[in-house]
Amino acid sequence: MSNGIIEVLNAIGGVLRFGVSPLYSNSIIQILAAAFAGSGSAGILVIHFSEKIRELPLFFCRDHLILCGVHPTTETLVQQFRNEKTKTVVIGAKQNTFETENIRRACTAMLSGDPKNPAMLSHARLKRARALLALTDSDSINAEIALSAMKILEKRKVHQLTCILQINNPGLWRIIREEALSQAKSAAVRLDFYNGPAAGARLLVNTYFTPDIRAWSENPSLFIVVGGGRLGENIITRASYEWFQNGLAPSVLHIALIDLHADTVKNRMLSTYPQLRDVANIDAIPIDVESAEFQKAGFLRDRGSFSSVLVFVCLNDDTASLSAALALSHHLIGLNARILVRMDHNAGLARLIEERSFETIQVIPFNSLSLAARSELVLGGIREILARAIHDQYMATWSLQEPAKGDSAAVSWNDLPERLKESNRLQADGILEKLRAVGCDIVPMTDWTASSFTFTTDEIEYLAEMEHVRWMDVMKRQGFTFGATKDEERKTHPALVPYAELPEPEKEKDRDAVRMIPHYLALIDFQVYRPDSCNSRAPKSNIED
Predict the structure, then answer these.
(1) Cis, bond preceding 539 (omega within 30 deg of 0)
(2) Predicted model pTM
(3) Structural domain harbouring 358
(4) Cα atoms in the 13 Å half-sphere on the side-chain side of 366
(5) Does residue 387 share a domain with residue 256?
(6) Which of 147-151, 177-181, 390-394, 506-510 has the lowest mean pLDDT?
(7) Report for 99-108, 181-190, 463-472, 478-487: range of highest mean pLDDT
(8) 307-318 as b/e, with b when 16 or more CB fall inside 10 Å?
(9) Domain presence at residue 114
(10) CA-to-CA distance for 77 and 67, rounded, in angstroms?
(11) Is a pLDDT exceeding 70 seen at residue 181?
(12) In Å, how far are 13, 189, 191, 359, 528 from 520, measured between CA atoms?
């Protein structure tokens, strides 16, 4: 095959891959391979250059997203980004899997290699990227990816790169956070975090467990989790935290954890969350869900002592999940029981389950990817999750009060006008800025008493003034000016004055907003963290408006 033909192949592959659709370029490659099948050397060349053809779009990539890791979450996100017409480059180990092929067809380019290798990140055009998403299954690898990115960009003065890390280990989270916040590196990389299993667990528990939690404390009930992976572990800790927060001790939450490594998972949770052992009685059952022992469900022999049972089947494999759910359903007949079964890949089978009744036992399929693997949540990071929690808290407070006429904010997040969504996001930004102003930060919550954290009197006053300045900036951008009375039509407001001139009741509103910070963070499983090396500090001079 002549160099001219190869150049034509490269040109066609690059144009189709970057400008039209990745599916077409794959088809072109297959057709050309078949065309040259008569010549062994030609066929080999086509196969060799196919990978190079797929990488050509990298030379044109700007403002793209780099995703590290190949698994169902990455596949789901790449498809979403493609629908949003956002270019993506995926870095992962060279393997032929169902997810790999789907990702290859949907992303701009896919690279096989070590994502923590600086050379590989540079090859993915890190310096031109909008964001880097380190989403591998390993916390340590994700941390190394972030450190490699900081090293590559350490001399950058403008265009801060957003780096989203999937980190589950709270201790490692804190180490990486402190490294990123060092002054030398923070200008180049803005570090944010994403924990899909925690987000999914929070939604599931708040929907299917928390509303009935009082009844559970008054009657013997059993909470079963099948599969001790990240999702199962987060479901246990979230349910136990809800039990703790609702003050249901000395009664305990009875939990059965079924997993081959159940003892290891249980011990890890107990060592991470000090209050867990006080509110939950976890029975670790190390058996294989495909074994005859599980099918017989001997661990349910005392089920008659429980009035209600809630089961979460959290296995990665849809077939295994459904098999486990059906096996348990036969043993729970006659009880007030519900089974939530994870079905991430087989939508048709999930619909079939929803339409059938399994001998009075309610079996409810859920897709863990649709719960948490959403592009706006991943890219939005802590800011987006906190903004939604702030709105949820507003809705919970609003439901206890007499509704105000024409309150456009009293709707679900999805129905909220974009300007009000952005207002919540700005409030979330303000929370993070206030914490940094007094030498604090946030970390994943391991101390369940952290929501009772209190700032010093000086800190509260200083941060209340910050909150008032933030609120005035928002109001002024919306066209409001000072007026003796509040008038939405004329856009006047009597509180548009310096903090020192506010009446005491108005100041107290700003102080209350500061006092609520630990509570807002607890809603998304975070807590205020004051480094040991940092004493409480609150500048005494007034904030300039």
Answers:
(1) no
(2) 0.83
(3) 199-372
(4) 22
(5) no
(6) 177-181
(7) 463-472
(8) ebbbbbbbbeeb
(9) no
(10) 9
(11) no
(12) 50, 26, 21, 42, 10
